[in-house]
Amino acid sequence: GEEVAQTPKHLVRGEGQKAKLYCAPIKGHSYVFWYQQVLKNEFKFLISFQNENVFDETGMPKERFSAKCLPNSPCSLEIQATKLEDSAVYFCASSPAGGKLFFGSGTQLSVL
Amino acid sequence: GENVEQHPSTLSVQEGDSAVIKCTYSDSASNYFPWYKQELGKGPQLIIDIRSNVGEKKDQRIAVTLNKTAKHFSLHITETQPEDSAVYFCAASQRGGADGLTFGKGTHLIIQP
Lengths: 112, 113
Description:
The structure holds two protein chains of two kinds. Chain A is mostly beta strands. In chain A, 0% of the residues lie in helices and 50% in strands. Chain A contains no helices and eleven strands. The radius of gyration of chain A is 13 Å and the shape is globular. In chain B, 0% of the residues lie in helices and 54% in strands. Chain B contains no helices and eleven strands. The interface between A and B is medium-sized, with 23 and 23 residues.
């Protein structure tokens, strides 16, 4: 597709429940990025992929967060045992090799 | 790692006036500097970018300048219009975006009618 598609737009989970977010990158883009945007607008880098391989995961809280980008499937970001502080908007972006990042419209995760 | 500082956090200008947002970065290896516009409830939208081999770039009412020696870059919007109201983010990257972006904390631009 011509734009990064993220689903769902909104996700509500009770504390301790699992959350799974999806991202379909722009066709032909080989890099996928996940960012977390918290209330004060700050973007926190989580993880990036080059095709289906993890490129950089230095931002991932590894105990509860995991991500995948498998061939012929949307990329996913999964949070096991959500906590209140996981409430944020999660953005996916894709990029051609070494090029501009294009962002999706985000998934608003609310943990109650 | 890279650190990007952005100022001001809020900027209010009269419609038709110019707006300038400034950013500094810490890592001299950074070579790609995009600017994003984010409207309420939407994802960031790339509005202009500049690479370190260029000092200035213009696109209609928007321009970006880069001073590599001082490690700062600025966004200039001329003849501001109500639809320019949004949060603007600067960012920096070392490999033209391939290794992701380090963002500033954003500037809320308010255009007063």
